């Protein structure tokens, strides 16, 4: 009898344990479902993955945006930046794609160093930007400049120089790729010395005479190079331009007085540029500058969450205080949202197989870089 009671006791205990486990499971699932079914982000926290170390340009951009997100996203959620550096943004972007829940409470910022490896299918890339929904995007720009003594006789003379032009860069697979391709299109004989740790050191190399042709992004050019121009120590040659939604290279709106390389090419050679180098140049301008930074959410996040986030971005760009205070961070460019953003992404990240093949072979031939081993 006692044995029967003991057995019944243990059976009852097991049943109660199973019920408790079931209740706890339902509670966790229910909490998640409630979160997904909520109509706002009231009292919630959004994790904002920044795949760079703190203090860099993309991190500064992300941290500037966070209070405006909290202000304009319905429910005024707390937005917390999480830096995941490594692999020139690839490490953090991979983690976001593969490890972060697509519940609408995780967002990501990408930059040119995320975009170009993606379109080239670099072997270390384990993310697909097509699996993300864009929320807001921002352009940037770049200016190529040289020494006054080299520019005094005009672009045609500059293009005829052999073994006299030296460029200090970081890496041929980063933003330098656009500038290097501009030299390729214009048929300029430029020796690239790569391995510098940033655009700042590259500019210092120009100032110290280690190089005599350089580029800087819009904000860095305005901050650090325009004074060199005023002092007679530098001359701007061209802007890297912007690619519009029709795929045309246009002048940079921040430097409307400077020509694009297309205009220079026509002036020098009497015909429009064409061929794979030209197509590669336009493609990399689009992916690197016309959409320099994009903020995303998982495409398979709940639809209502995506709509709330997208509406928040629509509200954000209408905020006059954002427009005024973002001048330095966005370098004076207008942000993209909605259909305009989707169209720009389609233009920027759609690369033809021939153009992709040409860029990969160009990097292998000129810089001994195998995109399949990066």
UniProtKB/TrEMBL annotation:
InterPro entries: BUG, Bug_dom1. It comes from the Bacteria. PANTHER family: BLR1237 PROTEIN, TRICARBOXYLATE-BINDING PROTEIN. Belongs to the UPF0065 (bug) family. This is Tripartite tricarboxylate transporter family receptor. It comes from Oceanobacillus oncorhynchi.
């Amino acid at each position: 009898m006692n044995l029967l009671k003991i057995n019944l006791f243990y059976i009852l205990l097991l049943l109660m344990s199973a019920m408790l486990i079931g209740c706890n499971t339902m509670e966790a699932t229910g909490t998640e479902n409630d979160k997904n079914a909520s109509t706002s982000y009231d009292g919630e926290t959004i994790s904002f993955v920044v795949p760079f170390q703190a203090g860099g340009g993309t991190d500064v951009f992300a941290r500037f945006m966070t209070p405006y997100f909290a202000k304009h996203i319905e429910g005024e959620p707390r937005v917390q930046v999480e830096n995941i550096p490594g692999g020139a943004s690839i490490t953090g972007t991979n983690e976001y794609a593969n490890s972060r829940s697509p519940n609408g409470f995780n967002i990501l910022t990408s930059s040119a160093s995320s975009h170009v490896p993606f379109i080239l299918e670099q072997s270390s890339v384990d993310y697909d930007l097509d699996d993300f929904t864009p929320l807001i995007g921002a352009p940037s720009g770049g200016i190529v400049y040289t020494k006054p003594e080299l520019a005094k006789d005009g672009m045609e003379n500059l293009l005829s120089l052999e073994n006299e032009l030296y460029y200090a860069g970081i890496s041929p697979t980063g933003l330098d790729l656009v500038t290097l391709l501009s030299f390729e299109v214009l048929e300029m004989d430029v020796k690239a010395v790569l391995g510098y740790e940033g655009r700042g050191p590259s500019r210092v190399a120009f100032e110290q005479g280690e190089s005599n042709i350089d580029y800087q992004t819009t904000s860095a050019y305005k901050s650090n190079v325009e004074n060199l121009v005023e002092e007679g120590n530098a001359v701007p040659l061209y802007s890297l331009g912007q690619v519009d939604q029709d795929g045309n290279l246009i002048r940079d709106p921040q430097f409307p007085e400077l020509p694009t390389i297309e205009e220079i090419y026509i002036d020098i050679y009497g015909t429009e540029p064409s061929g794979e180098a030209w197509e590669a140049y336009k493609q990399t301008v689009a992916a690197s500058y016309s959409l320099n930074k994009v903020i995303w959410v998982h495409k398979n996040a709940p639809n209502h969450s995506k709509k709330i986030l997208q509406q928040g971005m629509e509200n954000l760009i209408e905020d006059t205080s954002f427009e005024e205070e973002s001048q330095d961070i966005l370098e004076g460019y207008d942000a993209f949202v909605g259909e305009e953003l989707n169209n720009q992404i389609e233009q920027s990240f759609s690369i033809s197989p021939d153009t992709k093949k040409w860029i990969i072979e160009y990097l292998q031939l000129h810089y001994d870089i195998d995109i399949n081993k990066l």
